[in-house]
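Ligand-bound model needed. zinc ion.
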Amino acid sequence: MTAPAAPTRIAQLAASLDEPLLVLDPTNVRYLAGFRSSNPALLVRPDGGATLYSDFRYAEAGRTAAAAAGVEFVVSGRVLLKDLAARLTGRIGFEAGFVTYDGWETLGSAGAELVPRRGVVEALRAVKDEVELDAIRRACEITTATYQRIAEEGLVGRSEREVAARIEQLFRELGADGAAFAAIVAAGANGALPHADPGDRPIEAGTLVTIDCGARVDGYCADCTRTFATGPLPDDLARAYAVCLAAEEAGLAAIRPGGVGAAVHEAAHAVIRDAGWGEQFGHGLGHGVGLEIHEAPTLRPESEDVLVAGNVVSCEPGIYLAGTGGVRIEDLVVVRDGAPEVLTRFPKALLTVD
Ligand code: ZN
Ligand code: ZN
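Prediction:
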């Protein structure tokens, strides 16, 4: 007797379907079929059969990917939705969060009965397999090594923009595809803006510098934030750092299977609120990370998402003191039975880099 083959992602999706699902989000197609195209579709049927579509530009890659995934490949017209409309019959599920109103009109123009579906493939993507975890782990290792280099090279006198460019250069030198998102480098008062754009002013001594960045490896993202001191700090910034670190540890301690997004957020927010800065932490504690930098599940006050083993989530409380500065500390972790596995290993004790 031989062991049954491991279920493929397409088979896993098919088992959850009531009618065929037309997958049009290129990230979802890449996840399911290992096919990268700017103009793809994947029709997955409840019986496990599937057809991959893309236009002439992608025909060769499409045939190769389809053969590897065990599905049929069809060369479509360049105007994909119009082409698909003529092929679709009966009830067809579509990704309501991805298809535009125009696209919906086109898809249904030849008579298919379109059924909106939400988050179906995203729910599968939220639980990572070992291949995916390996890519995310490598992206985090490169990100950690980049923080090490940046700390060695120093911050004072360089501009935020210069440091951000250097980070992206280091990612590539260290073997990443590139950056998962544009690096945030926010010094002094800019640190009070969670998504500050790096500017040209030289970084000054005696303040905090928040750096939020992540490498991308095999399409998978890392996400990590560290905040550095550039010399002796004013008391409020030193205290904000200590409170933020305590909140981050409290958040990590709440990340486990069965944890509800809102409750995990609250575990960290309570620490900041008790210190008197509840209103100065105005964003969610964390988000899922994978092929996209923000994906399911989410950790924020409104989130009903329930964590399961294999989720990859960030834990990133911040304290933003308008006009003075800010601190954010972010780790990326794998939800495990017991304590989460922390992938971003750069130390979190306040480090002075001048
Ligand atoms: Zn981040
Ligand atoms: Zn993040």
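Residues 130-153 form the longest helix (24 residues).
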